[in-house]
Design brief:
Helix content: 25-40%
CATH topology: Translation Initiation Factor IF3
CATH architecture: 2-Layer Sandwich
Strand order of the largest sheet: 1-2-4-3
Order of helices and strands: EHEHEE
Radius of gyration: 11 Å
Family: Belongs to the sulfur carrier protein TusA family.
Shape: globular
Largest sheet: 4 strands, mixed
Protein name: UPF0033 domain-containing protein
InterPro entries: TusA-like, TusA-like_sf
Organism: marine sediment metagenome
Pfam families: TusA
Structural class: alpha+beta
CATH superfamily: TusA-like domain
Amino acid sequence: MSQHELDARRMLCPMPVIKTQNKVKELVVGDILNVICTDPGALSDIPAWARINGHTILGHQSNDDELTITVQVGG
């Protein structure tokens, strides 16, 4: 299991989800991906995508106008 980071700042829907999906394809089950974004819609879009695709949202943090969503890759 390893940790990865995806910079999706200044991208609008649906790009943060698409970039997350593409990055997850490169990872293995159990890996952790921290998605950093500025689109507030990603807070609902990425968890919905994760739920549909069998991944787990471990949490999220807000810092000023940035949001970090932590995804654990599922099988």
